[in-house]
Amino acid sequence: MDKIFNCKTYDKLSNNNFQYYKFKSRRNTYIYIPIINNNIVISSLNLYNPSNIIKKIYKNLLMNALNFLDVKYLFRNKINANLNTDILECIDNVENYKYAAIYTGTPGNTSKYTIQLMDDKGDILGYAKVPKGKKSSVFISKEKENLEYVNNLNLERCKLPNLLYFDNKSNILVQSTIIGLEDVNNKLTQNIIDFLIEINHKTYNRVDLKESEFYKKAIYMIDNYPENIKSRISKSIYHLCEVYKLKDISYCFSHKDFTPWNIKKSENFIYVFDWEMSGYTPMYYDIFNYIYFVEILVNKSSVKTVIDNILNNKYIECYEEQTCRYNRKAMLIIYIIELIYLYKEDLNQEFDNIIINKAIEVLDLLII
Fold this sequence. Notes:
The protein is α+β, with helices and mostly antiparallel strands. It folds into two domains: about 5-180, no CATH class; about 190-365, Aminoglycoside 3'-phosphotransferase, Chain: A, domain 2, CATH 3.90.1200. The chain has helices at about 40-45, 55-65, 70-75, 85-90, 135-150, 190-205, 215-225, 225-245, 285-300, 305-310, 315-320, 330-345, 355-365; strands spanning about 5, 15-25, 30-35, 80-85, 100-105, 110-120, 125-130, 160, 165, 170-175, 180-185, 205-210, 250-255, 265, 270, 280. A nine-stranded antiparallel sheet has the order 1-4-2-3-5-6-7-10-9. A four-stranded mixed sheet has the order 8-15-14-11, with helices on one face. Strands 12-13-16 form a three-stranded antiparallel sheet. β9 and β10 form a beta hairpin.
């Protein structure tokens, strides 16, 4: 936490010094909550976004308890610290900023700190993202570009963060948010489908299969990956070209980490955030991704169930009716290969990563 906190120069006279509680979010990740008052603590817990239903219940119980119990009775493990100067220089650009809660980020090569910025009442003003290393620095810089691009699309079916500040030297990014939003559940909704249809319409492009970025990635994987992977990719390409007779594929701009934990909602719209991984992909990517990650990580479903829920999904049918229709099994093969490439090349994951392993199992059933 040295990049975030400066504990050695703690100064009781500084307005930047607070006591923080170290709240365990999930395995090896923590939220540092400023112990100011109950409103600030409740607001800080917005950084805790469990997908597991039991942990969601725990979060609700904890937030309800804070309406009746003084914060000092619930949080005992405290540290005294202040935010480092380079971070303060960035977040001080946010009007009415007073307090910050810090999420340490999911471990990995692209891990980053996320700082929730609050005013003196606990209202959330925005979020700052601080890179931990070179890879996360690249992703945060990419998010700046992606936010500028996607905001220029003038989407009507969803709302997006606005870029408030970006420091070119440290690659610290500060973006806006919208207060009062709710978590989405793990099921697709018509509002989500309407957003995916709209972004497809505004960014749609059809390309020859063998000229596509997907095909280039597949050939790279055949040339460079271990034998057990390259043989599956080769067989997949055979299926796409010879079995499904695929000549071209449609691309659109995609979030690429489109999951319930990167979406909030109100009664009238959805709010989509964390755009650092986004870019142009074969269509269906985001809608497949939403179902795939819920089934694999939340529901712990079998790969057969994953495939069945994608191939027999009424919302995907609606998506196809208003975009264009390809053989869904062929597009699922393409999505799985894109996912393996993303996790291996862009996220630098090992081949024994759970997402890659499950993706390979799905691919095996699709190319029997």
